[in-house]
Specification:
Layout lengths: L7 E10 L2 E11 L4 E5 L6 H9 L6 E6 L2 E2 L7 E4 L11 H5 L1 H6 L4 H13 L15 H14 L4 E5 L7 H18 L2 E5 L3 H7 L2 E5 L6 E6 L14 H26 L1
Helix pairs in contact: 4-5, 7-8
Bound molecules: adenosine-5'-diphosphate and magnesium ion.
Length: 261
C-alpha cells in the first residue's frame, strides 16, 4: 500500500541471520501521525523489524525511509521504548529522562523545562528526584516513555512496553499512552502480543505471519477517538479482536508447538 507523503516507507525489506530468514520482502508505508500496532506469533520478526527501523540492526536487503531519507543507523528522529525498562539505577527520574538530549549535546534550561513538562505529561509530576528503585513497574515505563519523547522524535518505536506490567496497570498505561499520543500525534509503531491492546490503540494493525516474517494482513481500526476503555466491550471491538486472532491463531499454535518440541 502506498500512502501519499509517507512518514515511514519500507520497501522490499529482507533480513536473515546466517541461514535463518527472519523477514521476507516487507513493503509498507506509514502516514504521519498514524498509530500502528504489530502483532504476530513469537519469533516472527517483530523485534527485528523494529530494530531495523530504529537503526539498531541492518536489513539484509531493502530499505526503510523516514521522511524520504534512508535509515542507516540510530538517530534522535526515532525514540525507542523497550519491553524492559533500561533506566540507569544511579540516575534520578529526571536525569534518566534527559539522557537523549544529553547524548545529543543540547542540554540547557529550555530543554530541562521540556523534560519537566514531559514528566508531567506521563504523570510523574513530583517524582523527578526519585531513583528508579523507588518506582513501580508502571512508573518506570512512564520514565522510559518520557525519555523516548525527550528527543522529540518523529517516530516512536515501542516493543512490548507494557508486557511486564500487571493487567490493571497495563490498561491504565494504554489509556495514558493514548492521551499522550493525542497531544503530539507522533507516528508510532507498537509491538504487542496482546490483540485487544493492538486494537484499542491503533489506526491500523499489521499482522505478521510466521517465519519468514511477512505482513499477512493489514487491519484498519475504524473506532472513533478518543477511545474510552469501555470501547473494549463494544461488539465492533470484539469483532476486530476476533478477526485478528483468527488470522494468527494457526501461526501461534504452530510456534507454540515448535517451542515445546
Ligand atoms: N541477533 C540475532 N542473531 C541470530 N538470530 C536472531 C537474532 N535476533 C533475532 N534472531 C532470531 O530471529 C527470529 C525473530 O526474532 P524476533 O525479531 O525477536 O521475533 P519476535 O520479536 O517476533 O518474537 C527468532 O528466531 C530469533 O531467534
Ligand atoms: Mg520481540
Amino acid at each position: 500500500m502506498t500512502v501519499p507523503l509517507a512518514k515511514l516507507s519500507v520497501a522490499g525489506m529482507t533480513k536473515s541471520f546466517q541461514d535463518l530468514d527472519v523477514l521476507r520482502d516487507i513493503s509498507v508505508d506509514v502516514a504521519k501521525g498514524e498509530f500502528i500496532s504489530i502483532v504476530g506469533p513469537s519469533g516472527c520478526g517483530k523485534t527485528t523489524f523494529l530494530r531495523i527501523i530504529g537503526g539498531l540492526e541492518k536489513a539484509t536487503s531493502g530499505t526503510a525511509r523516514l521522511d524520504g531519507r534512508v535509515i542507516d543507523g540510530p538517530g534522535s528522529d526515532r525514540g525507542f521504548v523497550f519491553q524492559h525498562d533500561n533506566l540507569l539505577p544511579w540516575r534520578t527520574v529526571f536525569s534518566n529522562a534527559q539522557i537523549g538530549p544529553e547524548i545529543g549535546g543540547y542540554v540547557n534550561a529550555e530543554q530541562a523545562k521540556r523534560t519537566h513538562s514531559l514528566l508531567r505529561l506521563v504523570g510523574l509530576d513530583g517524582f523527578a528526584g526519585f531513583f528508579p528503585r523507588h518506582l513501580s513497574g508502571g512508573m518506570r515505563q512512564r520514565v522510559n516513555l518520557a525519555r523516548a519523547l525527550a528527543v522529540d522524535p518523529d517516530l516512536l518505536l515501542m516493543d512490548e512496553p507494557f508486557s511486564a506490567l500487571d493487567a490493571q496497570t497495563r490498561e491504565i498505561m494504554q489509556t495514558e499512552l493514548l492521551r499522550i499520543w493525542e497531544e503530539g500525534r507522533k507516528t508510532a509503531l507498537f509491538v504487542t502480543h496482546q490483540i485487544d491492546e493492538a486494537v484499542y490503540l491503533s489506526d491500523r494493525v499489521f499482522v505478521f505471519g510466521r517465519r519468514p516474517g511477512r505482513i499477512s494482513e493489514i487491519v484498519p481500526i475504524d473506532l472513533p477517538r478518543p477511545r474510552p476503555l469501555s470501547v473494549k466491550r463494544r461488539p465492533e471491538f470484539v469483532a476486530l479482536v476476533d478477526r485478528i486472532w483468527q488470522l494468527i491463531e494457526e501461526d501461534v499454535r504452530a510456534s507454540v508447538l515448535e517451542e515445546r518440541g
